[in-house]
UniProtKB/TrEMBL annotation:
Highest taxon of source: Bacteria
Species this protein is from: Sphingobium indicum BiD32
Chain spans, region Disordered: 27-46
Signal sequence extent: 1-20
Keyword annotations from UniProtKB, A to Z: Signal
Protein name as it appears in the record: Lipoprotein
Length: 124
């Protein structure tokens, strides 16, 4: 073979050589970041947090909605002045679901303070 052709073959073979036996260099001292707090830790603490369905129905009466899914139960209470959505999750397998998140809004849909809505619902 002539020299230019041999040089061309060598240049074309270089990218393939890079795919050959190389190893992955292990990272030393790497540890996954620690788990952060649960999402419920970022919510505002309030009097409804930790309440179970029985406590909610004692406070507000029969819920307007009672939606049960695999991991969550949503109870909705309303009285014409506000709508309160409570989301209950079981803290552990076999435990009674408790409130971990609350949303409140006016009948028109604008956000309202959940504590104020709870007070309005208790007044019935």
């Amino acid at each position: 073979m002539n020299a230019p052709r041999l040089a061309l073959i060598a240049l074309l073979a270089l990218p393939l050589a890079a795919c050959g036996a190389g190893g992955v260099v292990p990272q030393t001292g790497y540890a996954p970041p620690p788990a952060g707090p649960p999402a419920s830790a970022f919510g505002k603490p309030g009097p409804l947090m930790g309440a179970d369905a029985r406590a909610l129905t004692q406070m507000f009466g029969t819920p307007r909605l009672d939606i049960r899914e695999t991991t969550v139960r949503k109870l909705q209470f309303a009285n014409g002045r506000c709508v309160l959505d409570t989301y209950l999750y079981a803290p552990a397998r076999g435990k009674e679901p408790v409130v971990t998140h609350v949303d409140a809004r006016s009948p028109a849909g604008s956000d309202v303070d959940p504590a104020a809505c709870a007070t309005a619902l208790r007044a019935r």
